[in-house]
Amino acid sequence: MTATARLRQPTFLLASGVFLTALVVYGFTLPPTLSFWDCGEYIATSHILGIPHQPGTPLYVLMGRVFDVLLSPLVSTAVAVNFMSAFFSALALMFVYLIVEKVARRADPDAGWLPHAGALTGVFFLMFSDTFWNNSIEAEVYGLSGFVLASLTWLALKWYEQHDREGSTRLVYLLVYVLGLGVGFHLGSLLVYPGVFVLMLLAEKRRFDLVDLFGISFALGLFMLSTMIKDDFVLIGGLVALLAVALVRSFGRKPVILVSCGVFLLGLSVHLFMLIRAGLDPAINQTQPDNFGTLMTVLRREQYPPINPFERRADLGWQIGYYYNYLLGQFTFLDLGNPMLNRVSVFLVPVFLALLGAVHSLTRVKRVGLMLLVNYLINADVLNLYLNFSDREVRERDYFFFAGFLFFAVFIGLGAAALPRYLAGPLGRGRRALEQGTAAPVRIPPTAAVVAGLLVLLAAMPALSPASHGHGGKWWLHDRSENFIAREYAWNLLAGLDPGAIVFTNGDNDTFPLWYLQEVEGVRRDVTVVNLALVNLPWYVKQLKRAEKPLPVSYSDAEIDNLKAVRYEDPQTGQSEIVWVRDYIVHDILQNAGDAPVFFAVTIPQENMQRYFDMLQMEGLAYRFTGRKSGNGMPSVNPDRMLANMYGIYDYDATLDGDSAARRRAFAQQNRELADKGGVAEAPLARELWDVQGLWASITHGRQDRPWNVAGLQQDLGPFRTDFYVDGNADNLMGNYPAGLIRAGYEYLMRAQKVPADQQDAYLDQLRLSEAAFQLAARFDPTFPMVADVYPMVLVELGRSQEAIDHLESVSGRIPPQDESRAVYEAATAMTSLGDGAAADAWIARRLEADPSRAENYQLLFKIRRSLDDLE
């Protein structure tokens, strides 16, 4: 067949269509910037050719740099690296299509076009599955690793088709090379080999001996073992034995083991990038693997606690359910308005098809079916048992099972091809039974054709159904095209810091986005970011010491290497606690910081900054270290700086409706801090100014402790945006805004209560500032504690009872009933005592009419009318 004729084949055309469709779907739902978790680090390291966290993923970094350079004239670095995931995921889907079509046609050579329909069904279920979709639109390694897994499975099938022919061993070499190369994306790429091993083991008349197969397997197993243990005797002994067998076989003109080991090492050689690049001190240089020993610590992930599958971290039954809950949640395709009905539909269609596909392939193409089944089990149930997750994981862990979901989708496709074939009549002979020649296509009756078409349609429903695009639908849940939250949160955290600040951060979500902004966009590079998790590691502290802006650490490198965590017992209280390496380093930094302002991100758990907790002052998304105790064991709050940050500095375009630029401009104008820059209209409010010296410095000129005029700025702040999905992690981080604002609002309220009775204007000024803080908090979450009850009281004090009523009615039924009853009682009582009893009376009467069962409202109405002398 000529190349032109091959391009016209339905298989090629449909596979190309799958690739393009996936690229369009993922392109439309791609985030325009970074997402939370590892994405910021991967984008930044791709841009600067840095070293990300263990196990390093060097091929990902190199490919990310290629996409960054190639697409830089068209899109930002973040979009380019995100698009790389979409591109390789689309390729993975193309290979899944080819796998299903090939296996289904091998099982039923007379099935005509049904293998194409089955392959499309499996592909669409995978394309729109939760984990695969998420992995395909963010800067993560799993989309690229999925491509490696799918392409290797397809290569194994190609080898099996010609395993008894001369030259077929070259495909084995290619497969082993890609395995080694795939480790540069993710170590999990090797988990496709067990199924390939089974296929090769069962294949008859292969062009290499069984000892060669076991030799290759031993080599791969030895490498995997080297990433898990540090026993040099075992590893070196195994390597010597492998080399001896490989050389003996080679001298006998059977070089399969030696060549396979060579090409595998050639694929692994991409890790030399880390050895070279780490020695050049890139800004992100995790573990600094500039020698072979350190490189092995990276591959072994020694930075993280070791995995012990023999000591269960949770009940085994719970762990099994943990995986299968993820599996059943992957392939939802209908929005029936009821979670139980949605789950039932998953059992009736994708799960049924997968079971049918597994049984059909195991009976019709046993060897290939076993390969697929082994790879599914290894990447699903076995991996679940090995990873041994606890029931208190810090985040969803579905991404670990992405390969299991991929092979499950392959079985879905095989089942979708088999079902209409059963409906078409008795099964013919399989490919193996035919031996040679082709089978005449069976006549496909209308019923079978309708079923095949309907299955394809159902699998594609997340893209086709209007409900899927609506609020809560599957497309809506995965569409990040308007989601700038991660970048905005990081930008706000940096923008609110003083020039030259040091900021301590906690984990991925308050560190990696800052690295991205500093290294990719050049934002606030004057700020030194210190991650409290990494500061326990000597290499990180030494890197910070020799950075472009050195961290003020007095310890020598040798002293840093010798620092160890110790258990300390207080001689007075007898209480025992662990003093971590980070405690020594943080204390040393604070001692030697001099005039450099020091901040702690509000995302740090209290126990990680307990020693300084009462010396902190909340100013927004970070606490300032003051060195002065607050007196009550808790951080103090600077409400003036808080409002300046929240109203005059921070950007909310990603979270709130409104106009952030207009709000900041109005804040600057009202506070007259840009007059010496040529007037507000000409003031450089673009982000270039913020990048160089920080927006805080440009607006306030360092004047921190003063009241700010924020009147009228609320008009440029709308409610929380609901036009895109915000996951639980982002929602928790968004809670840091109202959490800080209510502290500022309460502080102003306390100040108001301390104003002498004859200073009514000063009293009202403090109340208005309190109201401004609570009002902005209500924009983020009107049900937030204190926003739901204290905010209405402030409004009543300001003579705006109707606004207080409107607010309480807007949160009615959305806060706990006891909290709602208390807030209503306090607001109505305050309205009555301040001379607005008639409005309180009418309000409570309306509530009683709407819900006569609330007995407390009768009592409240009686109290109001008794105060009004109106008990009729």
Architecture overview:
The chain is mainly alpha-helical and about 850 residues long. The chain has four domains: about 15-470, no CATH class; about 485-635, no CATH class; about 640-780, no CATH class; about 790-870, Alpha Horseshoe (Serine Threonine Protein Phosphatase 5, Tetratricopeptide repeat), CATH 1.25.40. It is about 60% helix and about 5% strand. It has 41 helices and ten strands. The strands form three sheets. The chain has a six-stranded mixed sheet. A two-stranded antiparallel sheet has the order 3-4. Strands 9-10 form a two-stranded antiparallel ribbon. The N and C termini lie far apart (about 100 Å). About 45% of the residues are buried. Mean pLDDT is about 90; it is low at about 675-695.
Which descriptors apply to this entry?
two-stranded antiparallel ribbon; 4 domains; 872 residues; mainly alpha
Helix/strand layout:
Blueprint (H helix, E strand, L loop, with lengths): L2 H5 L2 H19 L10 H10 L9 H14 L5 H31 L6 H14 L2 H7 L5 H20 L7 H14 L10 H10 L7 H17 L5 H20 L4 H13 L3 H7 L13 H8 L16 H15 L8 H26 L1 H22 L14 H22 L7 H4 L11 H14 L1 H4 L1 H4 L4 H5 L6 H11 L6 E4 L2 H14 L6 E4 L6 H8 L11 H6 L3 E4 L6 E4 L1 H12 L5 E4 L14 E3 L3 E4 L10 E2 L1 H11 L6 E3 L1 H12 L15 H7 L1 H6 L16 E4 L7 H7 L1 H19 L5 H21 L9 H8 L3 H10 L6 H17 L3 H14 L4 H13 L5
Parallel strand pairs: 1-2, 1-5, 6-8
Antiparallel strand pairs: 3-4, 5-7, 6-7, 9-10
Helix pairs in contact: 2-5, 2-6, 3-4, 3-5, 3-26, 4-5, 5-6, 5-8, 5-19, 6-19, 6-21, 8-9, 9-13, 10-18, 11-12, 11-13, 16-18, 17-18, 17-19, 18-19, 19-21, 25-26, 30-31, 30-35, 35-36, 36-37, 37-38, 37-39, 38-39, 39-40, 39-41, 40-41
